[in-house]
Amino acid sequence: MHAHSGRTARNFMSHEISPEPILQVGLGYMASKTLLTAVELDVFTRLAQGPCERGDLAGALGLHSRGAADFLDALVALGFLERRGTEYRNSPSADAFLDREKDTYVGGVLEMANSRLYPFWGSLTEALRTGKPQNEQKHGGDVYDAIYHDQAGLERFLNGMTGLSMGMARAIAEKFPWVDYRTVLDVGGALGCVPVAVAQRHLHISGGVFELPRVRPVFDKYVTSFGLTDRIAFHGGDFFADDLPTADVIVLGQILHGWGLDEKRLLLKKAYDALPDGGAVLVYDAIIDDERRHNTFGLLASLNMLIESAAGFEYTAADGRSWMAEAGFGSTWVEPLMGGYSLLVGIKGRPGAG
């Protein structure tokens, strides 16, 4: 006992190790909840109108005086706000991505994280011990009924998924050789941010989204806002029950991770069948590195699938490429997108690996 304590003390004294990384991760929920609450309170949308004195800002947000200064200054320390004296303004990144009035707003996914995922993650231990979801399904509910129970809930979810996908959509519009194709279909594509981004950058491209019919009114509003109703169409249906519409490129964005292995294989086969020879399937998820050591976000996202779904999981690039080969795709490759996400590409009818 004494010898062990001596070794530990010597390590501390020599600065070979530090508890700081442990404490940063272990107490990371504090920073997370501070940001999520700021989004919930519309701090960043309010400050997008202009700088504001602390007292006026606290009053506008309905904050009690006891916690207001600490809350706002914590957002300064975290890098989301800037302060001069007692006047606050958004940081450049918060102004660009957390003002709900801008089309670059990514706060929708944070709103969903705050209202749903944050409390569910409190049951991670139970999920790991039982292998069962810890969301609405835990008490006999249905996750989609909970999300889509009213129009406001539906729009929050769809806007959240769009915010999460926005950066990937722009990267895909730049990285993939769209000059070789003319049409794109985003399966389960929510509001259609991928085909919109592609159509904006490549004027020869037209396409659409294949989604549940109830999504259409929100989709129409989104696509109309970009003036693309003549090039981006809505196709209503269920991607398990129905055949997929044909297109030169089919996108499966943040779809495969939500399902078990059999469903993953089925969706890739459906995409293969709907593509012409030489057509491409584009899959993007938080794909885990093949050694399962480095993509922290991908591994945590897979735990989120444990909490949120009956059988879903993230997967490695090697896994995805093998499933594509089983479906018939002759050429496959993977490339990074952003923030732990990667793009997995499969080409129909071209032998050889990319």
From TrEMBL:
<keyword id="KW-0489">Methyltransferase</keyword>
<feature type="active site" description="Proton acceptor">
    <location>
        <position position="257"/>
    </location>
</feature>
<dbReference type="InterPro" id="IPR001077">
    <property type="entry name" value="COMT_C"/>
</dbReference>
<dbReference type="InterPro" id="IPR036390">
    <property type="entry name" value="WH_DNA-bd_sf"/>
</dbReference>
<feature type="domain" description="O-methyltransferase C-terminal">
    <location>
        <begin position="121"/>
        <end position="329"/>
    </location>
</feature>
<keyword id="KW-0949">S-adenosyl-L-methionine</keyword>
<dbReference type="Pfam" id="PF08100">
    <property type="entry name" value="Dimerisation"/>
</dbReference>
<dbReference type="InterPro" id="IPR029063">
    <property type="entry name" value="SAM-dependent_MTases_sf"/>
</dbReference>
<protein>
    <submittedName>
        <fullName>Tetracenomycin polyketide synthesis 8-O-methyltransferase</fullName>
    </submittedName>
</protein>
<keyword id="KW-0808">Transferase</keyword>
<dbReference type="InterPro" id="IPR036388">
    <property type="entry name" value="WH-like_DNA-bd_sf"/>
</dbReference>
<dbReference type="InterPro" id="IPR012967">
    <property type="entry name" value="COMT_dimerisation"/>
</dbReference>
<dbReference type="GO" id="GO:0032259">
    <property type="term" value="P:methylation"/>
</dbReference>
<dbReference type="GO" id="GO:0046983">
    <property type="term" value="F:protein dimerization activity"/>
</dbReference>
<dbReference type="Pfam" id="PF00891">
    <property type="entry name" value="Methyltransf_2"/>
</dbReference>
<dbReference type="GO" id="GO:0008171">
    <property type="term" value="F:O-methyltransferase activity"/>
</dbReference>
<feature type="domain" description="O-methyltransferase dimerisation">
    <location>
        <begin position="27"/>
        <end position="99"/>
    </location>
</feature>
<dbReference type="InterPro" id="IPR016461">
    <property type="entry name" value="COMT-like"/>
</dbReference>
